[in-house]
Fold this protein.
Amino acid sequence: MKTLPVEIEEKIDRLLAVLDNDIRHMEETLSRLNELRAFVIKRDDVSLRKLLENIRVEVDNYKDNELKRRTLREELAIALGCSIEQMTLSRLEAELSGDKKDEVARRKIKVQTLAGRLKKEHLNTAILLSDCARFSRMLLKNIFELGGTGVMTYGPRGYAEHQTNRAFVNLQF
């Protein structure tokens, strides 16, 4: 069993608390992505604006947790004699034993799982928003080109007739 100095154990405890905040943030983000998609589908602009404002505020608050994680990572890298790039949860787990090792392993698995889900849900949200934009573009294109010369209809005798002076939207006031 490896014994670590008290100062390193305290840093690990602080890192575990930061990882708990990361996990909570990722779970809340997953929930917000679901809400975002629901509000877009329902076309609930008021709720969507409130949600986006809440997200902006929480992102500003979360920056402090990111700074703590980065600082702890640097401190642990120095204490364990490795570069900051080498200081990963897997590396930390390899340096530990007992309960601390199990706690780091649990947090690492939870973060990896949530990161995978978050990536998938982000992609689903991006696809939904992309499709909404595409449908809107198609709708606007069809509305404004209806009265143009490119639109052709067929008369009762089967002859092609170009529509003229039949604008869908009247731009005169």
Observations:
- The chain has a mean pLDDT of 86.
